[in-house]
Amino acid sequence: MKGVGEVKPVRSSLNIRRRNIWTGWSFILLSVVMIFIFYFYPMLQALIMSFQTGTGSNLEFTGLSNYQRLFDDNMFITAVTNTFIYLLVQVPVMILLALFISVLLNDSKLKFKGFFRTAIFLPCVTSLVAYSVVFKYLFAGDGLVNTLLLKLQLIDAPIGWITDPFWAKITIIIAITWRWTGYNMIFYLSALQNIDVSIYEAARIDGASAPRQFFGITVPLLKPIILFTSITSTIGTLQLFDEVMNITKGGPGNATLTISQYIYNLSFKYSADFGYAATVSYSIVIMIVLLSFLQFKVAGDKNG
Amino acid sequence: MKKSLMLVLVCMLLLTACGASSNKNNNAASGNTAKAKEITIWAWDPAFNIAALEVAKAEYAKTNPDVKINIVEYAQNDIIQKLNTGLNSGTTKGLPNIVLIEDYRAQGFLQSYKDSFMDLSGSIKGTDFADYKSGPTSLDGKQYGVPFDSGVTGLYVRTDYLEQAGYKLADLQDIDWKQYIEIGKKVKETTGKALITLDPNDLGLIRMMIQSAGSWYLTEDGKTPNISNNEALKQAFEIYKGLTDSNVANVHSDWSQFVAALNSGAVASVPTGNWITPSIMAEASQSGKWGIAPLPTLPGNGDSVHASNLGGSSWYVMNVDGKETAADFMATTFGSNAEMYQKLLTDIGVIGTFKAASSGKAYSQASEFFGGQKTVSDFAAWTEQIPSVNYGIHTYAIEDILIVEMQNYLNGKAIDKVLGDAQAQAESQIK
Fold first, then answer.
1. A-chain residues near B399 (CB < 8 A)
2. Which has more confidence, B37 or B395?
3. Above 70 in pLDDT, residue A223?
4. Is B84 in Cβ contact with A141 (below 8 Å)?
5. Mean pLDDT over residues A39-67, rounded?
6. Which of A271, A273, A274 to mutate to test the interface with B (most CBs of B within 10 A)?
7. Between chains, do A57 and B90 touch, taking CB under 8 Å as contact?
8. More exposed terminus of chain B, fewer Cβ within 10 Å: N or C?
9. Is the Cβ pair B251, A141 closer than 8 Å?
10. Among the listed residues B379, B400, B431, B357, the one whose alpha carbon sits nearest the alpha carbon of residue B155
11. Quick one: pLDDT at residue A9?
């Protein structure tokens, strides 16, 4: 009797566990199937395609030739260089700016907090294409920005914001900074709410200056969030497309071309080379994996 | 628990099955309607191509009242994307019966998606159209496209600015690009206006110049890059640099700024395709101040003529259900109806490439806006002189390489090195 009594609960708990597993799976089964069909299957297909070359539907397997082609493709190298210039200049500027603004807006004595927060967050709810088009007109040769600068006598001749290779890059950087700073600021703001006020009080009693508090308390405590935002910003910048497509079309002379736009050009502007375009997109995948790994190593927790 | 779960799963299966079957029904229905004479056409530019289609649709309805024709307007880039993705996925669902394709891209589509376009050799004759159109619209001796928009170029000039600088329209009848620059310097001196407006991202001017000499970025086979030894291309580059060096060029960065430069009176001339006419005429206050001269030639180049092409597009029938109706529509309207071309010209300003149409009386009308000039008959005459070249399938890929090298050249890199580097890059790019 004793033995049977011991076995029975085990069997029924097994049953319950099995049933629970099935119930659990049945809830997510649909999503899992969908993810496989609409995410993993296309990714696999793209990988297979990246080993094929040819125009349109005349594709044939050519092994690694597309991956070799990447290394002596000047246009690809230009696109990667441009993208990394955006990455190295824009992401740090934006993150510092977002941190700075969020600390200002977190001040308990500040009035109209809600208004400022909304105002700074607002750019990132605008449509990518719409704001790009507006920027194109603002920064045109006879656009508002040049007119203002000329009126204020800060410049003698209109700046070629879109037609000069150097200034075109600056225009793109200004545009994406305007669009995304508020987005990152929101993350910092919410993280700042979680920092105990008493830490700052203690620091103030100890005589720490405001910059000292910022670098000594705020930045270290926000480190996980900074890591998160820098990784998402890195991924976003590596996939940069809308702004460049709409403001400069990659010009002048490929000076603002990004990797994503190069993929678009290979697929649709040139003669439909989908195989090579897939290879270039996989190069972005590889870069994102490497960069995220690097950022984790540099900024992540030692034990994490 | 289990039962209800099964029920949910079964329901889901049924739902998806229903979805699938209703899809099938739809397909069958659309297949039937295609046979029951309903066709769909994709094109861009409502003021030009779509308007021309409407005329053709009305014309076709006279003899075939039971055929329903759906005209769908998309931007050209959207059409290219939809065609590429549709054809590449191997499903013809959702593709139109007739599509408008730019001549520079036509061979790319014809060669990349063989059998996706219908051979029209039986319904239209390629020789009925301007000769230079046969390159883009035919493949392996078969006629696939119905040649349409001519894209013939001219030199649009502000005659009032010219007169201030001491020139008349007649002085521009037989000039080369060097003389053009010289005139521009004089115009700039006296009026302060730029001679021309350039977009550093668009080498349309180079395309016009080299085609006027019967040359292209690729050799006759349409495959081998023809850059480093291309005399016409070299001269075109030199003229382009001459324009920027002599400070007679305005810079713009997109279409709306381009048109604004013309309409505001900031530039004295624009060498471009005849499709610019409606945009120039949009500024009514400038009526009588414009004239059109033949395109200048490349200096010292014996092959270069006073006529060239920029842009231009043609109609293609897709190999899907309803193609017979679509081919018939094309053959009886754009393919043979000379009378309709008169209407296209007077109502919309379309200069077609159908040879028989150019003798009609609409073609010899004088334009008040252009100072009483018979612009259309001029354009029609130039259309006949346009040298035929093989655009191949890589026009835009090579152009992106050349745009970069052009910037290097303007910044002082030697011309032979510029073209040599571009050649090497094009060879590695095009495989």
1. none
2. B395
3. yes
4. no
5. 88
6. A271
7. yes
8. N
9. yes
10. B379
11. 58
* All residues at 6 or more sequence positions from B152 whose CB lies less than 8 Å from its CB, including other chains: B273, B274, B307, B308, B309, B312, B351, B379, B382, B383, B386
Task: Find the length of chain B.
Answer: 431
Test the B interface: residue of A55, A77, A241, A267 with most B CBs within 10 Å = A55
Q: Which among A19, A252, A270 has CB closest to B200?
A: A252
Q: What is the pLDDT of residues B65-118, one digit of tens each?
A: 889 999 999 999 899 999 998 888 878 888 999 999 999 999 989 988 888 999
Quick check: B30 pLDDT over 70?
no
Instruction: Report in angstroms the alpha-carbon separations of B52 from A105, B57, B153, B299, B345.
Output: 59, 9, 20, 38, 9
Residue A122: Cβ within 10 Å count:
10
Query: Which chain B residue's Cα is nearest to A59?
Result: B112
Asked if the Cβ–Cβ distance from B108 to A271 is below 8 Å, we say yes
Which tokens in the block code for residue A133?
Answer: 């088009």
Judge: B88–A274 Cβ closer than 8 Å, yes or no.
yes
Out of 1.20.1730.10, 1.20.1250.20, 2.30.42.10, 1.10.3720.10, select the CATH number for domain A68-299.
1.10.3720.10
A300, A114 in Cβ contact below 8 A? no
In B, minimum Cα distance to A268 occurs at B81
The tokens describing A227, both together, are: 């890591």
Q: Are the C-beta atoms of B218 and B211 separated by less than 8 Å?
A: no
Name the token pair of B63.
Answer: 């003899």
Work out the pLDDT band at A304, boundaries 50, 70, 90.
Answer: very low
Q: For residues B21 and B85, give the distance between their C-alpha atoms in angstroms, rounded to a whole number.
A: 24
**Could you tell me how many CB contacts below 8 A there are between chain A and chain B?**
102
* Pairwise CA distance, residues A242 & A258, whole Å: 10
Which of helix, strand or coil describes residue B247? coil
Q: Beta B269-273 vs B290-293: how paired, if at all? A: unpaired
Burial string for B97-115 (b: 16+ CB within 10 Å, else e) reads bbbbbbbbbbbbbbbbbee
Beta sheet of B269-273, edge-to-edge order: B269-273, B153-158, B290-293
Query: For residue B398, what is the nearest residue in chain A, using CA coordinates?
Result: A270
Q: Which of A72, A254, A269 sits opposite B396 (nearest CB)?
A: A269
Query: Band of the pLDDT at A302, cuts 50, 70, 90?
Result: low
Query: How far is the alpha carbon of B78 from chain A, nearest alpha carbon, in Å?
Result: 9
* DSSP state at residue B152: B
Mean of pLDDT values over B359-386: 88
Please, what are the domains in chain B? 38-151+310-359 (3.40.190.10), 153-308+386-429 (3.40.190.10)
Q: Which two tokens stand for residue A283?
A: 């190069």
pLDDT band at B233, cuts 50/70/90? Answer: very high
pTM: 0.82
B429 contact residues in A (CB cutoff 8 A):
73, 75
Q: What is the token pair recorded at B171?
A: 């002085």
